[in-house]
Amino acid sequence: MSEADLIVLDQVNKRYGDLHVLRDVNLNVRQGEVVVIIGPSGAGKSTLCRAINRLESIDSGTISVDGTPLPAEGRQLARLRAEVGMVFQSFNLFAHKTVLDNVVLGQVHVLKRPKDAAVRKARELLDRVGIGGQAAKFPAQLSGGQQQRVAIARALAMEPKVILFDEPTSALDPEMVNEVLEVMTSLARDGMTMVVVTHEMGFARRAADRVVFMADGEIVEQNAPDAFFGSPSSERAQSFLAKIL
Ligand code: ADP
Ligand code: MG
User: Fold this and answer.
1) For 37-77, how does the pLDDT look when each residue is reduced to its tens digit (9 = 90+)?
2) Helix or strand or coil: residue 208?
3) Which residues lie near ion ligand 2 (Cβ < 5 Å)?
4) Is 167 helix (H, G, I), strand (E, B) or coil?
5) pTM score, two decimals?
6) What's the CA gap between 40 and 44, in Å, rounded?
7) Taking CB atoms and a 6 Å cutoff, what residues make up the pocket around ligand 1?
8) ipTM
9) What's the 117 CA to ligand 2 centre distance in angstroms?
């Protein structure tokens, strides 16, 4: 690994019973890099994200974040996990908390930030994702696109070293996809390290430094977006792209 590698997966394997869902996965993500992961349903993309955040255990191999191997459990894990933000397809907001509280709570409980500083930070981030005016509302009063932007603000509030996005726009009505992708594009421009699982190939072309194609638990190929979309080298990537483009 080089010094600039923020995330390093080395020979990672994961099984669910007889199903081998991650097969000898090696992946390095550099500081400031935007890696877009694509591939068919069931390829193991979500499992990979969840493993990086230790929401899912692995059977063998190692995963390091900023030079520290992720422990299986314990107090150190909670601290390391806070360094890896995650944005899910289903938003996962606290339904009974206001938008503002959704962005404040983790700062207070996990980072032990004073309440007033957490509120200030939350307001600043809600402004940044374009929903400063919605702070007092509850998630259900917002559109899907707005809820997902709250989720992004909540992830940013923890000042993570990297944010993992697992199909962040897949649950959205089509007219709301762009407002979320625009926020993500702006984060990418600001130098945030991002791992993004998505079917939005336009976003992959525009924002990715590297596209990683997964199938059947393996990284089949990876390349810069122009090279990958222009001339995918594997048959599996070719047939996947032929189906979706
Ligand atoms: P993707 O996100 O690429 O669609 P997943 O990582 O969700 O793929 O799933 C990879 C494979 O692992 C799929 O075959 C899925 O059915 C299986 N799988 C995922 N989670 C579990 C689980 N908790 N228990 C058993 N099998 C699972
Ligand atoms: Mg998935």
Assistant:
1) 999 999 999 999 999 988 999 999 999 999 888 876 777 78
2) coil
3) 45-46
4) coil
5) 0.95
6) 9
7) 16, 19, 21, 39, 41-47
8) 0.98
9) 35
